[in-house]
Design brief:
The chain is an alpha/beta fold. The chain contains nine helices and seven strands. Helix 4 runs parallel beside helix 6.
Length: 201
């Protein structure tokens, strides 16, 4: 729950999975476990956002409830649930990444997200600086591949894209660098879960 404590000389490769986690589900776990294996990560930090600027507060559970849902579902010892954005007082991903890179200068971060986020990435604050700040691993989601790969962000940084076969070295490459990775199963939507669960909020 607190800001992870590491010495200034710590050298690790950490994946960052940001989101509302409203609620956390097996799809988040699946992507995190895949990233640990495919990207050669030492760990994955879930950044439970206080409030996604692009989402309505109407259907958003409290951050405490969302953190609890994440803690209940995560069993892997290398996946850590955090409220870093709350602790760092950052609201936007670009600001969070800048703060993390300043706090942990020797840690190599990889931003992890689904293809649906790449499709709308150009709407994120300072989205181009995010590409230039950290490496990005994008996991395929059914019905989003075409939109994602033809998006403004994908086109802008097309020359920085690496093949999935090279994803295991992504953390050793300097930003901007990103990869679009295939994924099977676990096509789970937090929206669908909320629709089926009357007592989530």
């Amino acid at each position: 729950m607190t800001i992870p404590s590491f010495g200034p000389q710590t050298k690790q490769t950490i994946g960052l999975l940001g989101g509302s986690f409203n609620p956390a589900h097996e799809g988040h776990v699946h992507i995190s476990e895949l990233a640990l294996k495919q990207l050669g990560l030492d760990g994955v930090w879930w950044l439970v956002s206080p409030q996604n600027p692009l989402k309505s507060e109407k259907d958003m559970a409290s951050v405490e409830k969302r953190v609890l849902s994440a803690q209940k579902i995560v069993k892997h010892p290398k996946i850590r649930i955090t409220r870093l954005e709350s602790r760092l007082a950052t609201r936007y991903t670009a600001d969070t990444l800048k703060a993390l890179c300043k706090r942990y200068p020797n840690i190599r971060f990889v931003w992890i997200m689904g293809a649906d986020n790449l499709a709308s990435f150009h709407r994120w604050k300072d989205w181009q600086s995010i590409f230039k700040t950290t490496r990005i691993a994008i996991y395929h989601r059914p019905a989003y591949a075409l939109k994602a790969l033809s998006s403004q962000a994908a086109q802008r940084f097309s020359s920085a894209r690496i093949r999935p076969q090279k994803a295991h070295i992504i953390a050793r490459l300097k930003p901007p660098t990103w990869s679009f990775l295939p994924i099977r199963g676990k096509n789970i939507s937090a929206t669908d879960i909320r629709r089926r669960s009357k007592d989530w909020l």
